[in-house]
Amino acid sequence: MFLDLNALKKAELHIHLEGSLEPELMFRLAERNGIKLRYGSVEALRKAYDFGNLQDFLDLYYSGAQVLLQEEDFYDLTRAYLEKCRAQNVTHVEPFFDPQTHTDRGVDMATVVNGITRALKEANAEWGLSYGLILCFLRHLSEDEAERTLDAALPFRDHFIGVGLDSSEMGHPPSKFKHVFARARELGLLPVAHAGEEGPPEYIWQALDELGVVRVDHGVRATEDPALIERLRKDQIPLTVCPLSNIRLKVYDSLKQHPILDLLEDGLKVTVNSDDPAYFGGYMTENFEALRKDLGMTDNQAQRLAQNGFDAALVHTS
Length: 318
Prior knowledge:
- It holds the Pfam family A_deaminase.
- Keywords: Hydrolase, Metal-binding, Nucleotide metabolism, Zinc.
- The protein has helices at residues 23-33, 42-47, 54-64, 71-87, 99-103, 109-127, 143-153, 178-186, 201-209, 226-235, 243-248, 260-265, 277-280, 284-295, 299-311, and strands at residues 10-12, 90-93, 96-97, 130-131, 134-138, 162-166, 190-195, 215-218, 239-241, 270-272.
- By secondary structure, it is an alpha/beta fold.
- It has a single domain (14-311), classed as Alpha-Beta Barrel (TIM Barrel).
- The strands form two sheets. The chain has a seven-stranded parallel β-sheet with strand order 3-5-6-7-8-9-10. A three-stranded parallel β-sheet has the order 1-2-4.
């Protein structure tokens, strides 16, 4: 009898709230806000989810985010994701949000933060979900713009625990943001960063040594650098790995090629996450199930991966 992967207690550490915007909700919000989408139906939109690379996905991702305008939109987005968590026994979440995706469209920072945090607080009160929110900078924009974003977010400092770095990786090394990350650390914010998804192992080194990250998001290309693997193992730096995302974005041709279980058995603190589940065809349970189906993940490995998620959390959980 196999372990029930849906009932397995899980923590999610790599989830973009904007990437949990399901097509059905996107269309409802577009209608509510009087926005005309590029696609005429939910079915037509889903057919567009055949990404050739990270940039193809991001183009669609940013287009979809235009429907998020009011505080209630951000609440509905977050609440819908958290209901998925409740259904899949995800008891702790540390979601990312991208304020620049919204403030650059004229949406006020308070609108974004208040909508998201209202849903998180409700979930905590209603079923005991624990959480910590992470503000991400968009790496295709400048460090000066990241500094201004941090300034705008400081009145809401109590609502988020850390800063991250996401969006287009190629051509935008972590070192580009070393000053704003140093400032964030001085403010007591915990740093994480996307590195080593499309970008080379050098980006992981930079995230560790120049940004001072306590956790690497993705990090799978560390397999190309034995010295880096040893560093990650020795220091037990968590990697927030997103298996289904890596396949949909062509990091690997097949999940059978994915190194997550090899990294686990090599003693690295790897975790399972969904990344942008509305676009990549799976939340937490679906990612665990895919690892069992395509990589032969054992029940013991599933339990270790799940426990790593709690061990790697920035907010202490039990």
